[in-house]
Design goal:
The protein has two helices and six strands; from the N terminus they run βββαββαβ. The chain is α+β, with helices and mostly antiparallel strands. It has a six-stranded antiparallel sheet, with helices on one face. α1 packs across α2. The two termini are 21 Å apart.
Length: 140
């Protein structure tokens, strides 16, 4: 049975779900930063998903990326699966700007997280939800 790793609760908010994955917002206003987590138990790597699930994850990643590009108009979208600390398979999608605090370096460990205010989080979440299609189900 799938359970979201509890460490995500420390710095993320679940904003909804796709067919396969939960969509989380990282609580760091330095970057529009979202995470896809496939809702499959005991999965650490993409190759552990079935072929169909791998294709679905790719579709969801592309759908999210298109929505991020349309919503946040960044210079680049960084997509990564690390799992060095949280082993549960999750895919980071980070909108990058040439004037963001870490550009052009990776974001990990560069700057202290800047938490969203409740209003900022609501606005960012609603903007993205508006850009996603009917295959996305908002939390709530």
């Amino acid at each position: 049975m799938f359970q979201l790793d509890p460490r995500f609760n420390n710095d993320c908010t679940v904003i909804g779900r796709f067919k396969l994955s939960l969509l989380l917002l990282m609580n760091d206003a330095n970057y529009p930063w979202f995470i896809l987590v496939p809702r499959e138990a005991n999965i650490r790597e993409i190759y552990q998903l079935s072929d169909q699930q791998q294709q679905q994850l790719t579709r969801e990643s592309c759908q999210l990326s298109r929505a991020l590009a349309a919503t946040f108009n960044g210079d680049k979208i960084n997509i990564a699966s690390l799992g060095n600390i949280v082993e549960q398979l999750h895919i980071h999608h980070v909108v990058r700007y040439q004037n963001d605090p870490s550009w052009p370096a990776p974001i990990w460990g560069r700057h202290k997280a800047l938490p969203y205010t409740a209003e900022e989080q609501r606005v960012v979440t609603q903007q993205l939800i508006h850009a996603l299609d009917s295959h996305f189900v908002p939390a709530g």
